Amino acid sequence: MEKTVQNLLQCLRNVICGEDVPLIAMSETEQEKFYQMSLAQDMAHLISAAVGNGENHIISEKYRKKFRQQENLAIYRYTCQELALEEIRTVFEQQKIFFLPLKGAVIRDFYPEAWMRTSSDIDILIRDEDYEKAKKFLTEECGFLYESKDKKNANFYRDEHVHLELHLNLIKDGQTVEFSPEYIWTHVERTGYECRMSDADFYAFHLEHMKQHFTTGGCGIRFFLDLWILNHSVKDKQEKKREEKLERCGLAEFEDAVRSVTEVWFGKAEHTELTHQVERFILAGGGVYGSVENWAIVQKVRNQGKLKSVIRRIWLPYEELCWSYPSLEGKKYIQPYYEAKRFFKMIADGRWNRSVQELKANAKGQELSDVEGMMKKLGLR
Fold first, then answer.
1. Any residues with CB less than 8 A from the CB of 173 and at least 6 apart, and which?
2. pLDDT score of 94
3. Cβ proximity of 234 and 199 under 8 Å
4. pLDDT band at 347 (very low <50, low <70, confident <90, very high)
5. Contact indicator for 260, 269 with CB cutoff of 8 Å
6. Do residues 50 and 34 lie in contact, with contact meaning Cβ atoms separated by under 8 Å?
7. Which segment of 122-136, 143-157, 320-334 scores lowest on mean pLDDT?
8. Which of 112, 293, 303, 335 is 20 to 30 A away from residue 158, measured at CA?
9. Number of H helices and number of E strands within the chain?
């Protein structure tokens, strides 16, 4: 493992797990790489908490200052999002709209300090029948601007630090009964109009979300840190119910593998061949949501072929296109119109450039073989 990666993981153990282990000395060049890696993984604010004081001479003052700036930005972002969430909570309670906070809005409560768990947006699940009412009060009472909507979620924003994803469904592809809105709303725990998933449901959803990112380019260190937190900081976790839920959702193999990685990174466990493979795949991704190169490799391993995968991204199957354009349902004869509309939207928002990068991405036979073996062991193929 590279020195920069060792130091990044040690910083996280020092801050989150309460260790106090010195870092390995780094050159100026290595410190720059260390800083850029922490930015890409959205971990720079946590690194600041580990190296910010003047007693740590491994990190120069130049980089301690940069890390402090990221810590201040994380605290500011958290404050903006928390104020917005409180406004939404108040309005939804007043208007009798059931709502279910998701992802970071829930997990941050288990971190040593809530601001340590950054989020790019606020995620909330609501019932489909409440959507128009929620949209009205979000825009009229909370100052949000509507951006876009598909069958899975609607997007709103208020400023650069407050982006809201109002979910109508938890997942889009391979929808299972236990992640369906009908199941979730039947099994939530209610306090007024604010709802919470059970421990087992939330744990399984985190892993399903993690799996979805894993199969579309990889996922960053934050997903693994969240998983560690859910296994070591939740006081009333229900292990048996978690295991039963994971079995029903086909996530048991995946959970066992990625949980083992967290025990290596943040605990005292030793590497196995599989955890080494997962580690290489994740760190090669470089960022919170993986990389184009990883996505191309995964698609090729899953027997779609690189070119076929990119074409499929440009020309979606009818069922998938309906998720993006609900008005297409029952009108397959106008599918070409919506394919063209989506294609030009891809060009406008820059996603076409990603498709071009996917075509250029290449992988050697051994690399493909290694990833194929890893995917089988993870239960993803």
1. 212, 320
2. 96
3. yes
4. confident
5. yes
6. no
7. 320-334
8. 112
9. 18, 7
Measured CA to CA in angstroms, residue 256 lies from 19, 247, 251, 260 at distances of 25, 11, 9, 6
Q: pLDDT band for position 378 (50/70/90)?
A: confident
**pLDDT: which is higher, 205 or 319:** 205
Mean pLDDT along residues 339-344: 82
Per-residue model confidence as pLDDT tens digits over 12-26? 999 999 888 889 999
For residues 310 and 355, the answer to whether their CB atoms sit within 8 Å is yes
pTM equals 0.87
State the pairing for strand pair 162-167/122-126: parallel
Average pLDDT of the segment spanning 42-59 = 82
122-126 sheet: strands from edge to edge: 145-149, 153-159, 162-167, 122-126, 99-101, 194-196, 189-191
CA distance 13 to 266: 6
Amino acid at 5: V
DSSP state, residue 147: E
Helix axes 199-214, 221-232, angle to 10 degrees: 160
In degrees and rounded to multiples of 5, residue 158 shows phi and psi of -125, -40
CB within 8 Å of 36: residues ≥ 6 apart: none
